[in-house]
Amino acid sequence: LRDTGTPEDETELAIEGALRPSSLAEFVGQKKVRGQLQLLLDAARIQQRPADHILLSGPPGLGKTTLAMIVAHESGRPLRLSSGPAIQHAGDLAALLSSLTPGEVLFIDEVHRMARSAEEMLYLAMEDFRIDIMVGKGAGATSIPLDLAPFTLVGATTRSGLLPNPLRDRFGFTGHLEYYDPEELERVVERSAAMLGVALPPQARAEIARRSRGTPRIANRLLRRVRDYAIVHRTDADEASVAAALELYDVDSIGLDRLDRAVLDALVRRFRGGPVGLSTLAVAVGEEPETIESVVEPYLVRIGFMGRTPRGRVATPEAYAHLGAPHPDGVIR
Ligand code: ADP
């Protein structure tokens, strides 16, 4: 159930796609960003032009891809999907941009992971709908300007701080997606359960919502595991099934998963509450620093279990209490 942003297989991917809301009205929560996007899309429609470029930032699974699809759908434009890691050379981007049809919405996921050379090409493309293609090498090299069809770029990033300023500045609007509160996740689960034909009592729904790390993708996945459990054990998708399924998948009472707990445990027990540097912490739990920083840490900070100081990450008394570890000030909370 670990959410690194990539659905684990084709079936899960298909179900995830089927559960995506296709309009802003159906999109649960994120009231602020929804209102901002609505205005942007309405203005573009009235002026009959492609919408300004949009940057969406926030941890995985909060709805960035879904919003990109909604932008295309609501403005009646086609959508092209790509991602930063797939754009390793300026040439990859040139091929992509020059094949766009007028008004097309281009979604680039993990836009902070694009090659530097492509980034520079993108500045010009975003601003002037033009790129310069380099032909030849060395002294004989020349650049040929190429006009592009106007397009709307929707960039997604888990960390907007990683984007170089010139790139960030070229987006007309940046939407910051926040973790969802349990009531909002209940609505996500209710909607998904109805679509999947799962009869889920309100208490079971609330329990899934409470233990989904504020993340719709995780809520939808937990729901599917609960459904699996009910099917296999020929029982109802009730609170007991929720508890059993979550236990099986190592989701604890407040929704932390194994990696969350491993990080907390290392911080509290091994590094005595910190401060400890990100890479040291990552090595201790055998994960990539980027995963710790963009997936694990934001949630632990948000629930007040971890703090970030100039000298490194620190555990809060609440983290000690959750692990049942004695706090150094002598109080067992
Ligand atoms: P991201 O691109 O931020 O990683 P996605 O847009 O892929 O996240 O969303 C992951 C899953 O969560 C999708 O299946 C989508 O249907 C669901 N989802 C995300 N946000 C919402 C929302 N606000 N309302 C309903 N479902 C949502």
UniProtKB/TrEMBL annotation:
<dbReference type="GO" id="GO:0003678">
    <property type="term" value="F:DNA helicase activity"/>
</dbReference>
<keyword id="KW-0234">DNA repair</keyword>
<keyword id="KW-0238">DNA-binding</keyword>
<dbReference type="InterPro" id="IPR036388">
    <property type="entry name" value="WH-like_DNA-bd_sf"/>
</dbReference>
<feature type="binding site">
    <location>
        <position position="20"/>
    </location>
    <ligand>
        <name>ATP</name>
    </ligand>
</feature>
<comment type="function">
    <text>The RuvA-RuvB-RuvC complex processes Holliday junction (HJ) DNA during genetic recombination and DNA repair, while the RuvA-RuvB complex plays an important role in the rescue of blocked DNA replication forks via replication fork reversal (RFR). RuvA specifically binds to HJ cruciform DNA, conferring on it an open structure. The RuvB hexamer acts as an ATP-dependent pump, pulling dsDNA into and through the RuvAB complex. RuvB forms 2 homohexamers on either side of HJ DNA bound by 1 or 2 RuvA tetramers; 4 subunits per hexamer contact DNA at a time.</text>
</comment>
<dbReference type="InterPro" id="IPR003593">
    <property type="entry name" value="AAA+_ATPase"/>
</dbReference>
<dbReference type="InterPro" id="IPR008823">
    <property type="entry name" value="RuvB_wg_C"/>
</dbReference>
<keyword id="KW-0347">Helicase</keyword>
<protein>
    <recommendedName>
        <fullName>Holliday junction branch migration complex subunit RuvB</fullName>
        <ecNumber>3.6.4.-</ecNumber>
    </recommendedName>
</protein>
<feature type="binding site">
    <location>
        <position position="170"/>
    </location>
    <ligand>
        <name>ATP</name>
    </ligand>
</feature>
<feature type="binding site">
    <location>
        <position position="65"/>
    </location>
    <ligand>
        <name>Mg(2+)</name>
    </ligand>
</feature>
<feature type="binding site">
    <location>
        <position position="66"/>
    </location>
    <ligand>
        <name>ATP</name>
    </ligand>
</feature>
<dbReference type="InterPro" id="IPR004605">
    <property type="entry name" value="DNA_helicase_Holl-junc_RuvB"/>
</dbReference>
<dbReference type="Pfam" id="PF05496">
    <property type="entry name" value="RuvB_N"/>
</dbReference>
<keyword id="KW-0963">Cytoplasm</keyword>
<dbReference type="Pfam" id="PF05491">
    <property type="entry name" value="WHD_RuvB"/>
</dbReference>
<dbReference type="InterPro" id="IPR041445">
    <property type="entry name" value="AAA_lid_4"/>
</dbReference>
<dbReference type="InterPro" id="IPR027417">
    <property type="entry name" value="P-loop_NTPase"/>
</dbReference>
<dbReference type="InterPro" id="IPR036390">
    <property type="entry name" value="WH_DNA-bd_sf"/>
</dbReference>
<keyword id="KW-0547">Nucleotide-binding</keyword>
<comment type="subunit">
    <text>Homohexamer. Forms an RuvA(8)-RuvB(12)-Holliday junction (HJ) complex. HJ DNA is sandwiched between 2 RuvA tetramers; dsDNA enters through RuvA and exits via RuvB. An RuvB hexamer assembles on each DNA strand where it exits the tetramer. Each RuvB hexamer is contacted by two RuvA subunits (via domain III) on 2 adjacent RuvB subunits; this complex drives branch migration. In the full resolvosome a probable DNA-RuvA(4)-RuvB(12)-RuvC(2) complex forms which resolves the HJ.</text>
</comment>
<feature type="binding site">
    <location>
        <begin position="127"/>
        <end position="129"/>
    </location>
    <ligand>
        <name>ATP</name>
    </ligand>
</feature>
<feature type="binding site">
    <location>
        <position position="313"/>
    </location>
    <ligand>
        <name>DNA</name>
    </ligand>
</feature>
<feature type="binding site">
    <location>
        <position position="65"/>
    </location>
    <ligand>
        <name>ATP</name>
    </ligand>
</feature>
<keyword id="KW-0067">ATP-binding</keyword>
<dbReference type="GO" id="GO:0016787">
    <property type="term" value="F:hydrolase activity"/>
</dbReference>
<feature type="binding site">
    <location>
        <position position="19"/>
    </location>
    <ligand>
        <name>ATP</name>
    </ligand>
</feature>
<feature type="domain" description="AAA+ ATPase">
    <location>
        <begin position="50"/>
        <end position="183"/>
    </location>
</feature>
<keyword id="KW-0227">DNA damage</keyword>
<feature type="binding site">
    <location>
        <position position="180"/>
    </location>
    <ligand>
        <name>ATP</name>
    </ligand>
</feature>
<feature type="region of interest" description="Head domain (RuvB-H)">
    <location>
        <begin position="253"/>
        <end position="333"/>
    </location>
</feature>
<feature type="binding site">
    <location>
        <position position="64"/>
    </location>
    <ligand>
        <name>ATP</name>
    </ligand>
</feature>
<feature type="binding site">
    <location>
        <position position="61"/>
    </location>
    <ligand>
        <name>ATP</name>
    </ligand>
</feature>
<keyword id="KW-0233">DNA recombination</keyword>
<dbReference type="InterPro" id="IPR008824">
    <property type="entry name" value="RuvB-like_N"/>
</dbReference>
<dbReference type="Pfam" id="PF17864">
    <property type="entry name" value="AAA_lid_4"/>
</dbReference>
<feature type="binding site">
    <location>
        <position position="308"/>
    </location>
    <ligand>
        <name>DNA</name>
    </ligand>
</feature>
<keyword id="KW-0378">Hydrolase</keyword>
<feature type="binding site">
    <location>
        <position position="217"/>
    </location>
    <ligand>
        <name>ATP</name>
    </ligand>
</feature>
<comment type="similarity">
    <text>Belongs to the RuvB family.</text>
</comment>
